[in-house]
Amino acid sequence: MATRRKIPLRKCVATGEMKPKKEMVRIVRSKEGEISIDPTGKKSGRGAYLSKDKDAILLAKKKNILASHLEASVSDEIYDELIKLVERENISK
């Protein structure tokens, strides 16, 4: 009998959906207050997960969800990077 592996789920801070961790992108705030995208999901610091979906990213930007979740200001460049990352992944599929 084969054992099934448990798939880790994470909640999108913008949409509230629970999805597999691999379908999400992690944004992290370091102890120094620096905000960055964490594609590996292993950087230390306070993290927030967003769906790899352009609409979720735009919703988070519009409502300033990431800034309130990470308790730090998030620049537009982070949102632009996230959108580029999602578009690159959609092209490669």
UniProtKB/TrEMBL annotation:
Residues 10-83 form the YlxR domain. InterPro entries: YlxR, YlxR-like_sf, YlxR_dom. Coiled coil: none annotated. It holds the Pfam family YlxR. Gene3D superfamilies: YlxR-like. SUPFAM superfamilies: YlxR-like. This is DUF448 domain-containing protein. It comes from Heyndrickxia camelliae. The lineage of its organism: Bacteria, Bacillati, Bacillota, Bacilli, Bacillales.
